[in-house]
Amino acid sequence: MxxxxxxxxxxxxxxxxxxxxxxxxxxxxxxxxxxMPGEQGEEGERGSPGYRGSxxxxxxxxxxxxxxxxxxxxxxxxxxxxxxExxxxMPGEQGEEGERGPAGYRGSxxxxxxxxxxxxxxxxxxxxxxxxxxNAFLEGDMYLGTTAQDVYMYGTSAWSCLLSLDATAxxxx
Length: 173
Known about the structure:
Elements: E1 118-121, E2 142-145, E3 150-154, E4 159-164
Parallel strand pairs: 1-2
Antiparallel strand pairs: 2-3, 3-4
């Protein structure tokens, strides 16, 4: 065989053939792009009121406000009942010894007699004959030494300390 020749010119379109039976449905195509938004419609009628909702949870505590001014003092209440008497306290410490008081007034002169007599002077009695007093001492006469507050009694020929009025011991000879 020989070589194939060049292709010829395209012929006229033929008449439409009879319709064919419907073919099978094809696969679903891809979704198209979103269209442009439409114009806003007219406002609708007002709806009926909805149901009342349940009570909400309590809110947080609010901030504390400033302190108010001090109020007026209230009236004094009635006196309370008397309380029980307390226990007696412990005795206090003994105080210091007070100052010695002034000497007492000199007594009036006694009646004359022959009984015992009292004498006084500073210090201890040193004389056995009462030259300063003008009489002889009798046994049982008493003498108060005003310096140390010692009381003496005259014996047959001498003085003996009986006691000391300021609670110290009699001096020893």
